[in-house]
């Protein structure tokens, strides 16, 4: 069975990736399980660049194949912001309030947005493959729902926010799920039975 390190210790991301890749006979390890705690500075200007920075750092520390992702929210009315700075847009727990404040005067027809995820794979030879996924929606006018995290309560997918969707519903349509589906196809071609 092949082993791949997921460049995170986030249990939710780990569970999601394991569910998708285990059927390929791939064991997905957290960074902790792989014996490393590297946390490189994500100073890239794109999601793909930041994902590669994380993947390369963990690959260099472990020598094992690595998957890393970077994702965020791109709001059309804000020229794609917060984008790669999504996690630094406001203090933790305040991103939704800040976004709602900034968007307060923006009319409904200009509230389009998308979540973007880039997943970098560094294989056992050090070669890079990047898979990207998106999920399009709108920015709501208030926080709704208690599931999810980050911008989920204000990101409207149809008539519900991401925070109102169940984990299974969100995982079927999310930006990360869409990127992981592409990664699954790449890995199945390389390692599948």
Structural account:
- The chain has 193 residues and is α/β, with parallel strands linked by helices.
- The protein has one domain: Alpha-Beta Complex (Maf protein), CATH 3.90.950.10.
- Helix content is 31%, strand content 25%.
- The chain starts with a strand and ends with a helix.
- The mean pLDDT is 92.
The largest sheet is: 7 strands, mixed
Low-confidence stretches: none
Percentage of residues assigned to helices: 25-40%
**How many structural domains does the protein architecture include?**
1
Strand tally, please? 7
Mean residue pLDDT: 92
The end-to-end distance, rounded to whole angstroms, is 11 Å
User: If strands are numbered along the chain, what order do they take across the biggest sheet?
Assistant: 2-1-3-4-5-6-7
How much of the polypeptide forms β-strand, as a percent range?
15-25%
Number of helical elements: 5
Structural class by helix and strand composition: alpha/beta
Integer-rounded radius of gyration = 17 Å
CATH structural class = Alpha Beta
- Overall 3D shape: globular
CATH fold category name: Maf protein
Please trace the helix and strand order, writing H or E for each element: EHEHEHEEEEHH
Q: What CATH architecture would you give?
A: Alpha-Beta Complex
């Amino acid at each position: 069975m092949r082993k791949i390190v997921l460049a995170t210790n986030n249990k939710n991301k780990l569970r999601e990736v394991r569910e998708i890749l285990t059927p390929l006979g791939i064991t997905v390890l957290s960074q902790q399980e792989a014996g490393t705690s590297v946390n490189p500075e994500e100073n890239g200007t794109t999601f793909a660049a930041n994902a590669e920075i994380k993947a390369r750092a963990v690959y260099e520390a472990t020598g094992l194949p690595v998957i890393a992702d970077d994702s965020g929210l791109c709001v059309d009315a804000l020229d794609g912001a917060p984008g790669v700075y999504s996690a630094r847009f406001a203090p933790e727990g305040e991103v939704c309030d800040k976004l709602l404040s900034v968007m307060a005067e923006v009319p409904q027809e200009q509230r389009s947005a998308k979540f973007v995820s880039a997943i970098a794979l560094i294989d056992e030879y050090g070669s890079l493959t990047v898979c990207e996924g998106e999920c399009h929606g709108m920015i709501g006018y208030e926080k709704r729902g208690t599931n999810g995290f980050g911008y989920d309560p204000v990101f409207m997918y149809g008539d519900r926010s991401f925070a109102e969707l169940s984990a299974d519903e969100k995982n079927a349509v999310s930006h990360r799920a869409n990127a992981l589906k592409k990664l699954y196809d790449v890995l199945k071609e390389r390692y599948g039975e």
